[in-house]
Amino acid sequence: MRYRTHLATTLAISLPLMVTSDSLSVESLSIVALGAVFPDIDEPHSYIGRRMIGISNSMKVVFGHRGLTHSLTGLIAVTFIFYLGHTTFGLPLELVHWFAFGYLAHLIEDSFSKKGIAWLQPLSKKRFQSGFNRIYYNTGGIIENILFVTATLILIQEVLQLNFSDFSFEYINQFLH
């Protein structure tokens, strides 16, 4: 799945959860978006890989694409690093949770690709395809494009339904400064 589909799908799922949990902020949106693209750090041609080329090349050599970063072990390890950011630097725990949510959403989304993912790496390299090889998409294919457009339309509808009087623009000012 391309980064834009990961972002649109994950944000369309996350936005109502953030609103109902009273955690909607620029920071929470940004960190869930980071989590949504982060597992692809193991692919130098990915959106995040092109921005972290040295790390991305190393990750691909060591783990391969859709290797350890596309597993529960990768999710736990990277979330633990973010948790250390909470304990060491005071990163709000809520943001650690949103990062993990975005990361998990990425894994679930990729598990519906034709190839699936190896959820249990490094214990097992067996790939699981969540659609039971009946419901799946190919990266860049027509189904992915339909998913992207659908998620984008849902996201637009959700944004239009937001009550901006409840949204504190103080977050935006803090983020920009």
TrEMBL record:
Note the superkingdom of the native organism. Answer: Bacteria
Transmembrane parts of this sequence: 67-85, 135-156
User: What protein name does the entry list?
Assistant: Inner membrane protein
Source species of the chain: Marinilactibacillus piezotolerans
InterPro entries to which the protein is assigned, alphabetical: YdjM-like
Pfam families per record: YdjM
Its keywords, alphabetically, are: Membrane, Transmembrane, Transmembrane helix
